[in-house]
Amino acid sequence: MTAVVAITNRDMYRAAVISQRVQNDFVTGLQVAKLNELKARMRREVVKFTYLKKSGELRIAYGTMMPALVGDHINGRGICGDARKVCTYFDVEHGQFRCFQFQALIKIF
Hints:
Elements: H1 9-22, H2 25-44, E1 47-52, E2 58-64, H3 67-70, E3 86-91, E4 96-101, E5 105-108
Antiparallel strand pairs: 1-2, 1-5, 2-3, 3-4
Helix pairs in contact: 1-2
């Protein structure tokens, strides 16, 4: 039996950041997979998910990156979330972009 793992440069970058923060290869792999699922779903729909804020508070968010919903809010002057080592999403409840650290993602509903 042969196992094939396909990983992109972006996945490798995120894995390096997460690994440095959590110091656990297993958790790093899980977080990269969860981030990929979240990002893919947010391109198609509004997604409910939870993450841990820097303050230690648990945040339940409804986020998306669907062009039809976020297009009017993009001004093109910001820095990409990955460059800042965070996951960026559009919070549909607050009508603003928000972000969280890669390793803080807890659950996707």
